[in-house]
Write a sequence for this structure.
């Protein structure tokens, strides 16, 4: 393995000297624009200590070597440079990166999740994070990447839903597929029918899936007399999103949710100035 080099530390030293030599020549705002340009120039500058330019230092490493170098930087407490991270990202998620996503080191897991770039190669590992005992921040990062690959994650989402793991999120993943899969439609409709609360959310999943075969059940629920205004509004939107017709609006003037929304949307009074002109 190559020598661990703190490229950011080297740059900081060089920029400190440069700023001292050019003190008073630039405003703070100008420095903010100049420093990124100097960093790009630094990336293309040969460094004797590295034996190469910073941007080329990791180019001849294998995926395994890159990940081992990343771990070594963390283990030896040597700052991880942007150059190493960029090279790992360029490799489209080396398989050696995947174990870090579910590993014990939270910092490395966060870095690995970011560097995986939402690759489909890491999709099953993202789902493993949701099934495991990991901090919420790690799970949230995994959810974001899963949603980026919602169509590819359909089978895993169906499996995890059946196992009772993060069911609401799995429905969101499934709703983004929009592929007319009978299994997905049946899952979304059943979840909607059996929802004991948050009916608008489940209606939203059906609307997002975009399959007009869900219209009958949505219209059936839309006709219920026990709907509050928020539920009615979201169900109506779902029906219309699927190309259905809802008929005339119902009167919800006595509904507390309707009244609250009306009150919040009411315009604030405008008070005239002393000369009679409005502010």
């Amino acid at each position: 393995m190559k020598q661990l080099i703190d490229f950011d530390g080297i740059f900081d030293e060089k920029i400190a000297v440069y700023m001292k030599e050019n003190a008073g020549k630039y405003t703070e705002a100008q420095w903010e624009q100049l420093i990124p340009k100097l960093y790009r120039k630094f990336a293309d500058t040969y460094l004797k200590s590295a034996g190469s330019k910073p941007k080329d230092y990791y180019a001849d490493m294998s995926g395994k070597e890159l990940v081992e170098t990343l771990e070594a930087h963390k283990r030896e407490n040597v700052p991880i440079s942007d150059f190493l991270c960029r090279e790992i990202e360029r490799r489209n998620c080396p398989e050696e990166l995947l174990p870090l996503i579910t590993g014990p080191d939270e910092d490395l897991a966060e870095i690995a999740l970011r560097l995986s770039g939402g690759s489909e190669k890491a999709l099953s590992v993202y789902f493993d994070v949701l099934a495991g005992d990991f901090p919420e921040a790690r799970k949230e990062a995994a959810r974001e990447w899963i949603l980026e690959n919602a169509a590819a994650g359909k089978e895993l989402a169906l499996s995890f839903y059946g196992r009772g793991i993060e069911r609401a999120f799995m429905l969101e993943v499934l709703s983004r597929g929009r592929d007319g899969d009978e299994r997905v439609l049946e899952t979304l409709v059943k979840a909607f029918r059996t929802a004991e609360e948050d009916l608008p959310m489940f209606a939203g999943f059906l609307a997002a899936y975009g399959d007009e075969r869900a219209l009958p059940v949505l219209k059936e629920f839309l006709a219920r007399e026990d709907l509050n205004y928020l539920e009615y509004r979201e169900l109506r939107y779902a029906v219309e999103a699927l190309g259905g017709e809802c008929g005339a609006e119902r009167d919800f003037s006595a509904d507390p949710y309707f009244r609250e929304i009306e009150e919040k949307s009411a315009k604030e009074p405008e008070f005239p100035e002393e000369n009679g002109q409005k502010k």
